[in-house]
Amino acid sequence: MGDESTISPKDRFLTVYGRKPVLEALADDGLRVDKVILADTARGPGATEIQRAAKAAGVPVQRASAHRVKVLAGNGKQDQGVLADVVAPRMRALEAALSDRRPPSRVLLLDGITTPANVGMILRTATAAGLDGVIVPRRGVAALDPLVVKASAGVAFRAPVLRCGSAREAAEMLAEAGYGLYALSASAKTTVFDVDLPQRAAFVLGGETAGVGGEVGELVTEWLSIPMPGEVESLNVSAAAAVLAFELVRRAR
């Protein structure tokens, strides 16, 4: 795996941008802000307020070009020339988690979920349910940005996020590590309530419109359904994640 210095910043920090979110992060005693990056074009009372708050919190402020801030924030319209890297203490690379002495036993794998609100709510639910990890690939899933943090009501900072390149890459790594891979499908005969689970299991949550992609689907051990006696075709992916997460809580009790 290499030492700590070789770990991508994206596997250590959640980046928030915009004056208000950065000030909120600096004011939160429960968070550790690694650094603030301020555009060299940022001037006036707003910039002064951020510099003052950063100094009070003992956080270094770096200056960068406005273009660099836009690139780092990944959102040119709303960064307001400032961003902060917030340490996410439970976020790490999936590879590191799987090679741990005690690898996670129950994880969720997000595949093609592009709505930040859904990703945020899934992180909040999984953290509340005490799941060991939520695999959020860097490609094909909504970026872990302020919209995700907001939807999680701030829980995203403390969520057990596991990072990797793509959902397919994650599925391959999980299969190789001996995990059963389960995915939700409305037509599956076996339900989430009666499936026999192995010691280590990963549950794939597919995108809002396409569901679980073919690349991941071909590695699935078993497809599971959520019984719905009412006449509704499917649940929102974050609602389905909640049903699944708390069924795992029930089993653990």
Largest sheet: 7 strands, parallel
CATH topology of the largest domain: Alpha/beta knot
Give the N-to-C terminal Cα separation: 35 Å
Tertiary shape = elongated
Q: What spatial order of strands do you see in the largest sheet?
A: 5-8-7-6-10-9-11
Cα Rg: 20 Å
- Which second-level CATH architecture of the largest domain applies? 3-Layer(aba) Sandwich
Instruction: Kindly report the average pLDDT value.
Output: 91
The unreliable regions are 1-5
Secondary structure: helix percent: 25-40%
Question: Which class best fits the helix and strand makeup?
Answer: alpha/beta
Q: Which range does the strand content fall in?
A: 15-25%
The count of helical stretches stands at 9
Total number of domains: 2
CATH uppermost class of the largest domain: Alpha Beta
User: How many DSSP-defined strands?
Assistant: 11
Structure, briefly:
By secondary structure, the chain is an alpha/beta fold. The protein has helices at 19-27, 44-57, 66-73, 94-98, 116-128, 146-151, 167-176, 214-217, 237-252, and strands at residues 13-17, 33-39, 61-64, 82-87, 92-93, 106-111, 133-137, 161-164, 180-184, 201-206, 222-224. Helix 1 runs parallel beside helix 2 (44-57) and helix 5 runs parallel beside helix 9 (237-252).
